Amino acid sequence: VGTVKDDGLPAEGDVATTWSQVSGPEGGTAKFVDASAASTTVTFNKEGDYVLKLTASDGEKEGSKEITVHGISSDGTVNVAPQSSASASYTNGYQPKDNAKKVIDGQVVYTNTPNETWNNWGDNTGVEPWLQLKWAGKVPLKKAKVFFWADGGGVPMASSWKLQYADADGDWQDVKLADGQSYMVNQNEGNEVKFADTVETDELRVVFPKGAIVGASEFEAYAIEPVSVDEVNRLVQTGSKADDLKLPSTVSAVYTDGSRRDLAVTWDKVTDAQLAADAVFDVKGTVAGALSGTVAHIAARSDTASQTVGNAQPVEQTVYQNAKSIDLPATVPVKFPNGYNDDRKVTWKDADIKAIDLTKVGDYEVAGTVDDGSSSAAAKLTVHVVADPNGSSTPKPEPLVGWIEGKATKTTISPDSEATWSPAEGKLNDGVVVDDTWPTTDDQNVNDKVWGSWGKAKNGMYAQYDFGQSVTVDQSRAQFWANFAETDDSKGGLEVPDAWEIQYLAEDGSWKDVEPTEDYTIVRNSPASRADTDAKGWSAVTFKPVATKSLRLVLTPHTGSSTFGAAVAEWGVHGIDGTEPEPTPVDKTALKSALDTANGLDASRYTAASWAEFQQIIDAAQAVYDDANATEEQVAEQVTKLEDGQKALVALATDAAKAEAASGKYTDKSVEALNKAIEAAEGVLKGDEVGEVTQATVQEASASLNKAVKALEEKPAAETVKKESLKASIEQAKKADKSKYTEEAWQALQSQIAAAQKVYDDKDAKQVDVDAAQDALDKAFWATKPEQKPGSQQPGVTDTDKDDKDNKGDRVPPTGSAVSVVAAAAVLLTAAGVTILKHRQSGDHGSARHSA
């Protein structure tokens, strides 16, 4: 608790306070719940003396104060009772009605100050009195402590109590206590009980016996302390309403065991005015079960609507070594171009999660994808696996086996159950048993050999062994002694009990009877019979094994007209090894082989639906493979499912392969190989129907089928056939003048026109056929009569051509109409020549004579 005062200057300055650690034991760390608060809570990881400093500053001046405290190492829990609201079934009418709140104010009071404590003096409700704590949400409780108060008069000391919690349905259930714990009633000190399991609840109460008048100064409830609590980021449009922030009702808290819990959070108020203009501010959140609380970072910006894609910011999480598992955050902050963050949902990469080795200290990176696509970069989480600072190197104690009474660390008896001259301590388990050295005459002194009650015997009297560790016991025996050879009710003295029983301390802190598997026996040792029976003087019982830290021998003494006492020479307890044997490792070789084969399959070779079903089988098999506790039967079952699933995939792949083979896209040779693989695969399936198929056969057939599919060779792509030149030649030939040809040449030309047209109309015609048809047609077209009259020219033939052929001399271009006809023919020839040249170049065959 710190107090900070300021002189008020400067007027605009705020006083900032900070707690820090100056020194401590080696490796010791002080952790402040809120280092900026003048009064705060601090926990320590190691016991020792710590020097802590509180510093205050107003911006101009600074002051500090150091204090030395002796810190006790934290057990990983923190008192969260101050976060609750306290109530009671009834409160003393002379106290304020809400005085139950005093039990969570942190002040332990033992003196007679009623108004600073709670009591139910005057309670006439007729119900079991209770004192209750309620939180805003569920908290993970591990233990509780109650400080009772009494005034020695109207408010006596509590006689007994128990704890109850509200379950998921709101019904009250008794809290199960940890092994060896019991409800103690001690004045002027805290009465603490640890729970067997973590109690997740939002209500816890102390219940007292009906009619009890009790007082309590403080009721503490300890929850597992989280390593950290996630903060919240919100980026909203300027002018938004406070309700638009949609701050969560729970926040995720991280614990050292790798788990996360959603804890209820109550936020400080946010107003519409705070969002009316561009602003950046923080909102504090009070978290049930986490004293450190959390904070929401709010940014109201006018450009928010345009912020669509940003970058996911790296996050971190710490877990203690050897944790069983780890839960990862569901959201990550995404920073947008305007510089502000907004939380977005994230999906983490399974392979990276599986790569985290919780048994080894180190840092592990996990990549993730922001679900809504608002991040252009992958999300990144660094998991720090650190050594548990509270981890103990003390080996687990060896189990106590055989007759273990000599290993008891403490022997006690019920109140007023022994004579001072014959105590139980050092007698019951000293190994001194009845034998022939004991008295042979009545009423002799054996006080140094027995636990004797003499005249203080009473029903239910007991002796108790505490072992200091959990032991598993299945038998007990005792040697009783009577100081008279014959029982004489008129004389009294020491006598064997009429009955006896064994009780053990249960996990819930109560004492319970063992369950005998054989009846209790009673053997009377006396001066007349000194352990000389077959039982060697032992009264014995065998019972169902129980695990406990404490055991009681409970007696029903003999009664008569005179006073009788009880005497026990030795009390034996038989222990067995209750340690669960380490399970024999299950051979998972076959499962790993089947998984490797399944994961090596090419999913693209199977239908989506069939592969999805098979993937579920793979996932289930992988889960069993990863489960350290998986049984041999579970492993075998998954191997069978993988084999059956793969066989089903082969059938579907065969159908798909048949479709490929019939598509006509592949060469005959490669299709032939595929058909053989299909036939082999179908043979495997038929063999399976009569139980003749092994996993190896399936794998071989599947591999062959996949290989054949992958080896399919596509047929060469169809060539592009060009028919434009052929079409031009056909059209030219159809316009030929019959008079320019001999009858034979004309008939030949008509025949070539028909042949060329047939090739032109043939959709499957090859380029070589088109070229040949054009060559033949062109040749027939130019096969005109050798001599023509002047003025009647066939294309390419003039009167002077004939003279030229005869004269072999230089030609002079003709004039007039003849010139124009020749020019037209030349143009036509040139055009045709260019077309043919281009065609020849693309086709790489034929002759260039037509372009000459």
TrEMBL record:
GO BP field: carbohydrate metabolic process
Source superkingdom: Bacteria
Pfam families given in the database record: Big_4 (PF07532), FIVAR (PF07554)
Chain intervals with Basic and acidic residues compositional bias: 799-811
Domain Bacterial Ig-like per the UniProt entry, residue ranges: 230-289, 313-371
Segments of this protein annotated with the region Disordered: 782-817
Protein name stated in the entry: Ig-like domain-containing protein
